[in-house]
């Protein structure tokens, strides 16, 4: 068990390292921040001074080693825009992003999973077809289109909710709904097919044959088993809590990580982009590890280091 | 699509009945239909009488009280008939709670006794195991134990040994026979192997393409088979006394259920076929009090 844990941790660290390295080289080889920050027609001396100040004149690998060296000590560089520590800038935005992604996540679970279960249990019924139609619409319509439709209806036509910004308590509603609907649609489909797969298994028929009520068969023999594949997609959704709202935050001018990322990328604010992606990679990897453990907990066949063998 | 065409089948109290026929002829569907286990999209007509009570069209709640308690069923693939995420003890406990109202310590003691009953060694430890930690034969024993939990009048064993290797097969069949002798429970043994059925039951129903074509005591079937299909099955069987003989499997294949011939469904493969065979499906007729055949030339 300990060896498994250590191996898992090592792989996680390696993944994060690769992400950092990849992002670092792509960013540093794909354009000059000096031009963006100072504007292209700045005097050459100013540009030269800027590049020296940020170490951009040195070879890329040397910059990378320096970055790693500092990062290991908790220093992720400063924003080229306002000079503040990049990680601090990023972490300040986390609560704002979580304020929409966490409720949206709850919405996905609360709508998507029951809808999927219901559809599977009433396969081919009108309710099933309707659910699946809505679900297809839910994830084929891009989120910015959905966002615009919601704005048109609830802000422009009805005037109930603000169309953008974050100044009123109701401002979060449309971003949350936009995020939640798409995710719920995906989850509903996934849950439905997981349930159908399980309901077709011989142990379901066997459980019915021994006289168990259908409700109990579903609750005790279908749901726990269908939860196993569903965990994958739910885990993935946990992984996107930090960075899954880029489009929605941009459309609704919501001051979260996603919007910071967009502006940092277009400004070539390297340290900030790096810090965001590091955070994103870390959440993804953490979510993955959690999923692995939930798997082991849900499925005895995958349990490692069990108390007895065959 | 119609899978069954008028199954007339009677199981008497304590009797051991065999049900044989090639794959796809409807052996499983017959019993699943009787217990209402075919799912909501299947239509079942006719009557299934349990001690005079008709099960067809009864509310599900009532069928649920029949399942496991009056008629229990075990299946072909024991390892996938047990839920992989629950321990053996829990799955047994479920049946004990359901049929006998047992809980906690009493349920555990009874579960242990049942595992002993089906000759699983180290029962206490096995209760804590998951199905994947047991072999196929062990899982089938667990399934049998679970069926016994309801103290059923009839156990339907649907090809209980096809997924198991030869020695284990024999052990499971022997166990079924032993339990039947001890408990007086009736047994329906579904198999495509006439030999297996002969050794373990008193009477056999031969099914072909959704119909019972011959129904007779085992001895009659072996000494005086009447239906050409039964004769074909016998010819494909090695001699019981070990004498070597060339096996002659029946030529041709079972017709698809949606593409049955208009007359006798065995006609395309039958060597005794005459024109009259293709007029209408032959009706089952009694040759003797306990021998029924559906063939115009029998
Ligand atoms: N749930 C169901 N509803 C309706 N028809 C079914 C169902 N399951 C199977 N059938 C059909 O019924 C026919 C008989 O199948 P059945 O499983 O009873 O055959 P079998 O004799 O048990 O064969 P095997 O030896 O392979 O188990 C097949 O054509 C099959 O396609
Ligand atoms: S009715 Fe005719 S075709 Fe059918 S089994 Fe008898 S002889 Fe053969
Ligand atoms: Mg079958």
Characterise the protein shown here:
The complex is a heterodimer of chains A (about 300) and B (about 300). Helices cover about 75% and strands about 0% of the residues of chain A. With about 300 residues, chain A is mainly alpha-helical. Chain A has a domain of about 200 residues: Orthogonal Bundle (MetI-like fold), CATH 1.10.3720. Chain A starts with a helix and ends in a 12-residue tail after the last helix. Chain B is α/β, with parallel strands linked by helices and about 300 residues long. In chain B, about 35% of the residues lie in helices and about 15% in strands. Chain B contains eleven helices and ten strands. In chain B, helix 7 runs parallel beside helix 8. The radius of gyration of chain B is 20 Å and the shape is globular. Chain B starts with 15 loop residues before the first strand and ends in a 5-residue tail after the last strand. The mean pLDDT of chain B is about 85. The interface between A and B is medium-sized, with 25 and 35 residues. The site of adenosine-5'-triphosphate has 15 residues of chain B, from helix 1. The site of iron/sulfur cluster has 12 residues of chain B, from loops.
At CATH level 2, the architecture of chain B is 3-Layer(aba) Sandwich
Task: Give the name of the CATH superfamily of the domain at 92-271 and 282-299 in chain A.
Answer: MetI-like
What is the CATH T-level topology of the domain at 92-271 and 282-299 in chain A?
MetI-like fold
Helices and strands of chain A, in order, run as HHHHHHHHHHHHH
Instruction: Quote the average pLDDT of chain B.
Output: 87
Short description:
Chain A is an all-alpha fold. Chain A has helices spanning 2-29, 33-38, 44-53, 60-72, 86-121, 126-140, 143-157, 173-199, 202-209, 214-239, 246-251, 257-267, 270-298. The two termini of chain A are 18 Å apart.
Tags for this model:
heterodimer, A: about 300 residues, mainly alpha, MetI-like fold, 13 helices, about 0% strand, B: about 300 residues, alpha/beta, Rossmann fold, 8-stranded mixed β-sheet, two-stranded antiparallel ribbon, about 35% helix, globular, binds adenosine-5'-triphosphate, binds iron/sulfur cluster, binds magnesium ion
């Amino acid at each position: 068990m300990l060896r498994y844990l250590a191996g898992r941790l090592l792989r996680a660290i390696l993944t994060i390292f690769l992400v950092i390295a990849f992002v670092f080289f792509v960013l540093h080889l794909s354009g000059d921040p000096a031009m963006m920050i100072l504007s292209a027609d700045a005097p050459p001396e100013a540009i030269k001074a800027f590049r020296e100040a940020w170490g951009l004149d040195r070879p890329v690998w040397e910059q990378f080693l320096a970055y790693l060296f500092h990062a290991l000590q908790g220093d992720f560089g400063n924003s080229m825009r306002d000079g503040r520590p990049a990680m601090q800038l990023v972490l300040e935005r986390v609560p704002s992003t979580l304020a929409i992604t966490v409720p949206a996540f709850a919405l996905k679970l609360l709508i998507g999973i029951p809808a999927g279960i219901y559809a599977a249990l009433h396969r081919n019924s009108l309710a099933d077809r309707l659910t699946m139609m809505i679900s297809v619409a839910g994830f084929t319509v891009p989120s910015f289109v959905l966002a615009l439709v919601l704005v048109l209806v609830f802000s422009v036509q009805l005037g109930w909710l603000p169309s953008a910004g974050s100044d009123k308590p109701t401002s979060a509603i449309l971003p949350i709904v936009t995020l939640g609907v798409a995710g719920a649609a995906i989850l509903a489909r996934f849950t439905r097919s997981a349930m159908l797969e399980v309901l077709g298994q011989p142990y379901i028929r066997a459980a019915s044959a021994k006289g168990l009520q259908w409700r109990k068969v579903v609750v005790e023999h279908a749901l726990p088993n269908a939860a196993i594949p569903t965990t994958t997609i739910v885990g993935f959704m946990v992984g996107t809590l930090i960075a899954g709202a880029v489009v929605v935050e941009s459309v609704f001018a919501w001051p979260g990580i996603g919007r910071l990322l967009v502006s940092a990328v277009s400004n070539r604010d390297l340290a900030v982009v790096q810090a965001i992606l590091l955070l994103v990679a870390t959440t993804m990897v953490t979510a993955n590890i959690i999923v692995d453990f939930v798997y082991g907990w849900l499925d005895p066949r995958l349990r490692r280091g069990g108390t007895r063998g065959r | 699509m119609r899978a069954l065409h008028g199954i007339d089948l009677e199981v008497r109290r304590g009797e051991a009945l065999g049900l044989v026929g090639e794959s796809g002829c409807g052996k499983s569907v017959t019993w699943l239909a009787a217990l209402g286990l075919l799912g909501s999209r299947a239509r079942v007509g006719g009557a299934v009488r349990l001690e005079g009570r008709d099960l067809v069209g009864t509310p599900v709640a009532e069928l649920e009280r029949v399942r496991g308690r009056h008629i229990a069923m075990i299946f072909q693939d024991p390892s996938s008939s047990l839920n992989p995420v629950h321990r053996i003890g829990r799955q047994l406990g479920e049946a004990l709670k359901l049929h006998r109202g047992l809980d906690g310590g009493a349920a555990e003691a009874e579960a242990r006794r049942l595992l002993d009953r089906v000759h699983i060694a180290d029962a206490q430890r096995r209760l804590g195991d998951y199905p994947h930690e047991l072999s196929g034969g062990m899982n089938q024993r667990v399934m049998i134990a679970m069926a016994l939990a309801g103290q059923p009048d009839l156990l339907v064993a649907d090809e209980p040994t096809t997924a198991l290797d030869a020695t284990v097969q024999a052990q499971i069949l022997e166990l079924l026979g032993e339990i039947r002798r001890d408990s007086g429970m009736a047994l329906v043994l579904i198999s495509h192997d006439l030999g297996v059925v002969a050794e373990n039951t008193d009477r056999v129903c031969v099914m072909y393409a959704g119909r019972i074509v011959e129904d007779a005591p085992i001895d009659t079937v072996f000494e005086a088979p009447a239906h050409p299909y039964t004769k074909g099955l016998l010819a494909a069987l090695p001699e019981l006394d070990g004498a070597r003989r060339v096996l002659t499997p029946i030529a041709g294949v079972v017709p698809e259920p949606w593409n049955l011939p208009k007359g006798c469904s065995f006609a395309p493969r039958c060597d005794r076929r005459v024109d009259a065979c293709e007029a209408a499906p032959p009706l089952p007729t009694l040759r003797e009090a306990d021998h029924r055949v559906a063939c115009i030339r029998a």
